[in-house]
Amino acid sequence: MSTDDARTPVDPLAEPRTVRMVRRFGAPPPRLYRCLTDPEELVRWFPERIEGSIAVHTRSTLVFPNARRWWDIDTLESDRRLVVRWAWLPGDAWITTVTIALEPAGYGTLLTLTDGPFDLRVPGAIDAYAEAREGWAEALAWLRGYADFSVELRPRRY
Q1: Cis peptide before 117, with omega less than 30 degrees from 0?
Q2: Rounded to the nearest 5 degrees, what angle is found at the Cα of 49, between the Cα atoms of 43 and 51?
Q3: What's the predicted TM-score (pTM) here?
Q4: What are the residue ranges spanned by the domains of the chain?
Q5: Contact (Cβ atoms closer than 8 angstroms) between residue 47 and residue 64
Q6: Is CATH 3.30.530.20 the classification given to domain 17-149?
Q7: 99-148: per-residue pLDDT in tens?
Q8: Residues forming beta bridges with residue 110, ordered by sequence position
Q9: How far apart are CA 44 and CA 61, in angstroms?
Q10: What is the pLDDT of residues 75-111, one digit of tens each?
Q11: Most exposed: 15, 45, 67, 79, by fewest CB within 10 Å?
C-alpha cells in the first residue's frame, strides 16, 4: 500500500455541530415576531407560562409541563431576529446561542432557526444536540399551527 492510499481516520465528533432548521410560514414576519416575543402569544404555543420579561439583556424562565428552562435574551430586532442563550443539560452544563431569523417570503415568512455550537466530545453534549434537533422541530410545528392556523398542537395535559 502506498502512502497515498493511507488515510488518516476522521473523528466524526471533532467538529462542533449546529442545529439549523428552515421553515416557510403563511403568516407575515410581524405576526411571527409577535408569537416569539409577546408573552401572551408565546404561551399559546410554546411554554405554559413565562417568569420574567422578554426584553434585551434579561433572563426569563420558560415553564413547560415537565421542565423549566431559562433563556437570556441577547438581541431583539423587530420583525427580523431574536437571539437568545439557551441552557442545556442538568445544572446548565451546556449553553448555546439560538438565533431565529425572519425574512419576508411572498405573503409569508421564511424562518431560519440555528442553535449551537454543540461540542459532541463534551459529556452529555450529544444528548443536548439530539434533544435540540427533536425539540426545535416540534416547537416549530407548534408555532406553525398557532401562527398560520390558530390551532394549538401541543399535547394536552389530562
Answers
A1: yes
A2: 125
A3: 0.89
A4: 17-149
A5: yes
A6: yes
A7: 999 999 999 999 999 999 999 998 899 999 999 999 999 999 999 999 99
A8: 24, 103
A9: 16
A10: 999 999 999 999 988 788 889 999 999 999 999 999 9
A11: 67
